[in-house]
Amino acid sequence: MRITRRSALAGAAALMAASTLRAQHPAGGRIAPKADSPQRVWAKANLRGLMNLFLPTFREDGRTLDEDAIRHDVRHAIAQGFSGTLPMINWTLPGDPRWGEFHRILIDEAGDGLPVHGIIASGKVESDLRLLGALEELGTQLVLLASTFPAESSADQLHDLMAQRITATQLPVMLYAATGRRAFPALGPAGQPLDVYDRIADLDNVVAVKISQPVSLTSTMQLCQRLGDRLSMGPVNLDFLPLLARHFDISWSGQWNAEAVQTPAQPIGNRWLAASAAGDMAQVDALARQIQPALSHFFAMQAPVIRAGGHPWQHNRYYQWLSGGNGGLLPHDPHAPAGAIPVLDASARAAMRAAYRASGLEPTDAPEEQFVVGRAAWARGVRASDLTALPYYSQD
User: Fold this and answer.
1) Are 312 and 304 in contact (CB under 8 A)?
2) How far is 64 from 70, CA to CA, in rounded Å?
3) Of 206, 230, 256, which residue sits at a domain end?
4) Same domain, yes or no, for 293 and 346?
5) pLDDT single digits (tens) 36-84
6) CA torsion through residues 280, 220, 115, 158, sign
7) Mean pLDDT in the chain?
8) Which segment of the chain is annotated as a signal peptide (predicted)?
9) Structural domains in the chain (count)
């Protein structure tokens, strides 16, 4: 018998919802984090609903930031009701003058309407500490700890490397439970260093955990069980939400292509997470059925690319444009493995539109060429023929 992803999830859900959890938690009770520090008070107020990954936009030369387009996308994120945004820095790394420019434009336009997050992601303590200082100076409100650590680290070594970064700032810090090069197979099941996270979770400014999409249901449950009494848990894989919401206070999911599952006119992702936060399981189940076509299509498109070490950048950008974002092709990602990023072709675009409509979302009716150049450039009179290349994109 062939085991499908749907049947595997159903079997895992049944297993995890069985007697073990019933014994640990009384009926109607859910594990929820305590707001026992200023940073966790901030997290309780601000980590709600969906948060997106903010992609930069460049002008026709593929290098100069398009300020009008970036400001458009900030306003669009606010219209979506997102509760935070994380600038994606693959094309504007720290040390590049455009790194600061990108953040300043975004933070200026966001004002009080959208918390801007930062990310530290190097393998060197000194580099990350300098970056933390720069993020504090710019005015970011939360930091994602996505640093890379030696794979052979012991539990004590990993704890100390993480703590050196976390204790160097008063900003709220979000941990990143991930796979691949950010997993530690010797330190916990499926590479999740549960004991290390358990110790780190006691630091006052550690407020949350972003659980990456490829992390399994079993590992996600283990993380929530171990850390959910102190930290706000945010699974990227919302297929797990109907199960998780019955046992844990799950109120947010973020720093991913959240435009794939909602529009400003139909914010079903935000409504779904609000129902989860309120413990309204009838509404959680109803919205799960509505969002499933869009969510399943996104998962099937995104997860294999994540596992290959990249992101489907033009597909992500197309989702943003479908819901009213700027659009515009992203340049080649110099950090992605060769062949990891798929080409956005006509059949992929049609399938994304169909998944939108199946979930009751209405995509833009603007011409496809507007997506290629972006709304801001289109308004300036730029057309596809003015571009020197169409990376990861096919008209056919």
Assistant:
1) no
2) 12
3) 256
4) yes
5) 999 999 999 999 999 999 999 999 999 999 999 999 999 999 999 999 9
6) positive
7) 92
8) 1-23
9) 2
Mapped to the 3 state alphabet, what secondary structure does the chain carry?
Answer: CCCCHHHHHHHHHHHHCCHHHHHHCCCCCCECCCCCCHHHHHHHHHCCEEEEEECCCECCCCCCECHHHHHHHHHHHHHCCCCCEEECCCCCCCCCHHHHHHHHHHHHHHCCCCCEEEEECCCCHHHHHHHHHHHHHHCCCEEEECCCCCCCCCHHHHHHHHHHHHCCCCCCEEEEECCHHHCCHHHCHHHCCHHHHHHHCCCCCEEEEEECCCCCHHHHHHHHHHHCCCCEEEECCHHHHHHHCCCECCCEEEEECHHHCCCCCCCHHHHHHHHHHHCCHHHHHHHHHHHHHHHHHHHHHHHHHHHCCCCCHHHHHHHHHHCCCCCCCCCCCCCCCCCCCCCECHHHHHHHHHHHHHCCCCCCCCCHHHHHHCHHHHHCCCCHHHCCCCCCECCC
Note down the domain range covering 133. 30-48+83-256
Write the pLDDT tens digit of every residue in 188-207: 999 999 999 999 999 999 99
54 inside domain:
no
**Prediction pTM value:** 0.91
Supply the CATH number for residue 189's domain. 3.20.20.70
User: Is there a single domain that holds both residue 168 and residue 310?
Assistant: no
Q: How many CB atoms lie within 10 A of CB 109?
A: 19
**Same-domain pairing of 268 and 316:** yes
